[in-house]
Amino acid sequence: MSAMLRIQSPQSMQELGLAWRGQGLRVGLVPTMGYWHEGHLSLMRWARERCDMLVASIFVNPTQFGPGEDLENYPSDIERDSLLAEKCGVNALFTPQRDSMYLPGHGTWVTVPELTKNLCGRSRPEHFKGVATVVCKLFNLVQPTFAAFGEKDWQQLAVIRKMTRELDMPVRVEGRPIVREADGLAMSSRNVYLTPGERADAPHIQKGLCLLEGMIRAGERDCAVLRLAVQEYYAVHIPSGNLDYLELVDPDTIETVERASSDILAAVALRLGKARLIDNKRITIEK
Ligand code: PAF
Known about the structure:
By secondary structure, this protein is α/β, with parallel strands linked by helices.
């Protein structure tokens, strides 16, 4: 196999993507913000088996960060990521610079308002506008046949699916399961912000969602009751945590539901020290 290409220029990336697609090759894309963990690597391994040419991108996209968020401190180790990319069989690692992705005066945005009023869209009002716009740009630059995203960012995945469908983008969007640490904490580049004490409490985020699932399976349908039980669980087990939201929503529309139906998503965002951690659980039950 030929050596992995490292590409910084958006124009060079687009020329390569167009050339590959012109040759009839299947191009897979794993878009990331870097500082990879096993979740990212599992996306790359999965994509590697399904494409001829695999592109991974690393771009800490400034437009999806709000004021006071961790844009300037976002963890980064591009040389380590680059070695991991080679091991995963990435053909091209695309690492554009901020000023080449957003030229002065940039003023074109993609928004998906229906899906972004709730959950992370409520607490991070500009976030999904930045995500949808950069993913649209990455699709135009890389020309992928498909792109793979983790289901930890469920709302992001829903937004990207809707954008791709409604703007007729010729890209298949693939969602892949959350990858967890052995104790259940969802992997995230932001876990590095946790102190040892916070890290010890963090697995309770998922445990709270499992408690909620257990209650649904035992017959509880009232979402207010379900939410209260998990809020109380978090207050006891993650005392230094600050709950941003705990919601039960329709997995497709991201609308809040009052009674658990046969298919719902329980989603949580919790601030723990310097980290804002998200997790979710899809719960399907026989009718
Ligand atoms: O999930 C992420 O890492 C980012 O939101 C993405 C999709 C790479 C866009 O910047």
